[in-house]
Write a structure and sequence with these properties.
The complex is a heterodimer of chains A (about 110) and B (about 120). Chain A is an all-beta fold and about 110 residues long. Helix content of chain A is about 0%, strand content about 55%. In chain A, strands 2, 4, 5, 6, 9, 10 and 11 form a seven-stranded mixed beta sheet that branches. A four-stranded antiparallel beta sheet of chain A has the order 1-3-8-7, with no helix packed on it. Chain A starts with a strand and ends with a strand. With about 120 residues, chain B is an all-beta fold. In chain B, strands 2, 5, 6, 10, 11 and 12 form a six-stranded mixed beta sheet that branches. The termini of chain B are far apart. Classes of the chains: A mainly beta (about 110), B mainly beta (about 120). Chains A and B meet through strand 4, strand 5, strand 9 and strand 10 of A and strand 5, strand 6 and strand 11 of B.
């Protein structure tokens, strides 16, 4: 079974631009979560989608948004990029609602200059 | 709110010696706890999980952890370190929603394990 895939793996953007990151979960998984990893703040929860609905959102500004498609693939968007948005963005998928494990993709390394 | 505290930011061991990575948790209910490992420039890999079954949990690559409610601890151990174990390790607690199946993972700050020959 293929794992979680994320594209692109690396991205360089300029301050003020916007960016879209993509995540394909493990086949059959309907829950997708996004996390931001930075040296200063560590790993922080962004949001989670299940069956195309956002179930919860972390403490991030409205510039961070996401969506999920009917095939469970998810995208996250960051508008008006700031230097502090430079981070590794990790996507994780989860199977049945009774399952506790989340499976992570390799991440997208975003650098904002 | 759930939280975890990893007591050491760095741990150095020699190859072949035991590994102990310490984690304390805070939870208002019976928690689900995990250890994840992250190798450089890689995503996170689940090592093991505790979900209110056996308190001694065995994971991959020879790692295990013991859930101790009285001490609110979930320390990760391995009898003999290997060079390939050098990585960052995260203790994680699951923060469950109310009946929706929603789950948010709350991460510790990580412990970097260094293994010398």
């Amino acid at each position: 079974k293929a794992g979680v895939t994320q594209t692109p793996r690396y991205l360089i953007k300029t301050r003020g631009q916007q960016v879209t990151l993509s995540c394909s979960p493990i086949s059959g998984h309907r829950s997708v979560s996004w996390y931001q990893q930075t040296p200063g703040q560590g790993l922080q929860f962004l949001f989670e989608y299940f069956s195309e609905t956002q179930r919860n959102k972390g403490n991030f500004p409205g510039r961070f948004s996401g969506r999920q498609f009917s095939n469970s693939r998810s995208e996250m968007n960051v508008s008006t990029l700031e230097l502090g948005d430079s981070a590794l963005y990790l996507c994780a998928s989860k199977g049945q609602t009774s399952s506790y494990e989340q499976y992570f993709g390799p991440g997208t390394r975003l650098t904002v200059t | 709110a759930q939280s975890v505290t990893q007591l050491d930011s760095h741990v150095s061991v020699s190859e072949g010696t035991p590994v102990l990575l310490r984690c304390n948790y805070s939870s208002s209910y019976s928690p689900s706890l995990f250890w994840y490992v992250q190798h450089p420039n890689k995503g996170l890999q689940l090592l093991l999980k505790y979900t209110s079954a056996a308190t001694l949990v065995k994971g991959i690559n020879g790692f295990e952890a013991e859930f101790k409610k009285s001490e609110t601890s979930f320390h990760l151990t391995k009898p003999s370190a290997h060079m390939s174990d050098a990585a960052e390790y995260f203790c994680v607690v699951s923060d469950l929603g109310t009946g929706t199946g929603f789950q948010k993972l709350v991460f510790g700050t990580g412990t970097r394990l260094l293994v010398s020959p």
